[in-house]
């Protein structure tokens, strides 16, 4: 019996070392060599400090910045670890709202977001884009649609004291098209756009 068991044990050990250790280390090394930025989280630095990741959304609430789409991620309640509290863009707990479109609470919270967005952007010229009032499936999406940017453009232009045409030109330079021309949708990375805003029109501290 031992003669039959020994090959199975040795094969299990060999495959564990090869696929459980060797392969991951090799892929990590190759990725770090060929794609160092992506392998380390697509981090964005300014003045030697990491300010975020191109893959993870951030919240912005000042009028001089474009705002991101909502996030439904949660985190542990500091007062009671058995409960959760809202923790937007929490990368350790990626999730959507999981609420049904027919849920009364969801409808009310979405309407509250619509009212808030309208109040923040009284000079908007188009209907409220859906991605400004609904969370993405992951809760971490760093992008919004061009329509979401256009909706907020009058507010940001006014807060920055710049012409809308100039601001629209900057937005166009930050826009991302479909991958390979066919995959996904046109989009704008909110963090990158807001960093470009501060570079082009610095705000007084």
Automatic annotation (TrEMBL):
It comes from Paramagnetospirillum marisnigri. The gene is kdpC. It is found in: Cell membrane. Residues 66-102 are annotated as: Disordered. This is Potassium-transporting ATPase KdpC subunit. Belongs to the KdpC family. The keyword Ion transport applies. One of its GO terms (molecular function) is ATP binding. The system is composed of three essential subunits: KdpA, KdpB and KdpC. The lineage of its organism: Bacteria, Pseudomonadati, Pseudomonadota, Alphaproteobacteria, Rhodospirillales.
